[in-house]
């Protein structure tokens, strides 16, 4: 059966966790939702043995990645950046292409700055982008809502954490399905 081209495929997908850092989290709209769903995505991608990357925006000023998120990331190393877009993270887009990634799922903060610019640059670079709307946010709800609309109108798929994970699973009845089902409950 032929599937829709926008459905995520395990052999072509990666996750980028954008700038979920300690010093900015306290002022983020519904930050608990962002952290919780980003962790679900990280653990789900790990369960499926898929690529997970994470960035830190100017860690000297914004601090390290949230300890809760960092724990889920296990031994992954942060890609530090000064640019708002992850396109400015040294070698990140090149590595995605070298590993055959065509579909990129985004989570993190802030929706209207780093997530938005990354989504637009990924699209410009030829990637298909899915933004987990329940795993991104901004300081203000208004900014978050406008960012989702702008990303969507420029070609990004706006989706949900659970949708992402079940698209990647494709079928139920496997050990991976059981693990991911527990994650999303």
Features:
alpha/beta, 8 helices, 6 strands, six-stranded parallel sheet, 185 residues
Task: Write structural notes for this entry.
There is one protein chain. It is built from 8 helices and 6 strands; from the N terminus they run βαβααβαβαβαβαα. It has helices spanning 31-47, 59-62, 67-73, 92-98, 111-124, 141-153, 161-169, 175-184, and strands at residues 13-18, 51-57, 79-81, 103-109, 128-137, 157-159. Strand 5, helix 6 and strand 6 (157-159) form a beta-alpha-beta unit. It is globular, with a radius of gyration of 15 Å.
Radius of gyration computed on alpha carbons:
15 Å
The strands making up the biggest β-sheet line up spatially as 3-2-1-4-5-6
Q: Name the beta content range.
A: 15-25%
DSSP strand tally: 6
Question: Spans with pLDDT under 50 lasting ≥5 residues?
Answer: none
Give the structural class. alpha/beta
Could you give a quick summary of the protein structure above?
The chain is α/β, with parallel strands linked by helices. It has helices spanning 31-47, 59-62, 67-73, 92-98, 111-124, 141-153, 161-169, 175-184, and strands spanning 13-18, 51-57, 79-81, 103-109, 128-137, 157-159.
Topology:
Layout lengths: L12 E6 L12 H17 L3 E7 L1 H4 L4 H7 L5 E3 L10 H7 L4 E7 L1 H14 L3 E10 L3 H13 L3 E3 L1 H9 L5 H10 L1
Parallel strand pairs: 1-2, 1-4, 2-3, 4-5, 5-6
Helix pairs in contact: 1-3, 1-7, 1-8, 5-6, 7-8
């Amino acid at each position: 059966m032929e599937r829709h081209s926008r459905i995520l495929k395990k052999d072509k997908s990666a996750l980028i966790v954008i700038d979920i850092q300690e010093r900015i989290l306290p002022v983020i709209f519904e930050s608990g939702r962002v952290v919780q769903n980003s962790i679900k995505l990280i653990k789900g991608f790990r369960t499926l043995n898929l690529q997970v990357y994470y960035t830190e925006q100017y860690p000297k000023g914004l601090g390290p990645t949230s300890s809760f998120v960092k724990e889920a990331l296990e031994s992954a190393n942060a890609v530090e950046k000064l640019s708002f877009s992850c396109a400015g993270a040294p070698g990140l887009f090149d590595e995605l292409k070298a590993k055959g990634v065509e579909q990129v799922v985004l989570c993190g903060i802030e929706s209207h700055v780093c997530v938005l610019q990354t989504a637009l640059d990924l699209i410009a670079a030829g990637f298909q982008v899915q933004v987990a709307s329940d795993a991104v946010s901004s300081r203000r709800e208004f900014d978050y809502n406008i960012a989702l609309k702008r990303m969507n109108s420029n070609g990004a798929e706006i989706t949900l954490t659970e949708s992402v994970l079940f698209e990647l699973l494709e079928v139920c009845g496997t050990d991976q399905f059981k693990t991911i089902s527990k994650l999303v409950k």
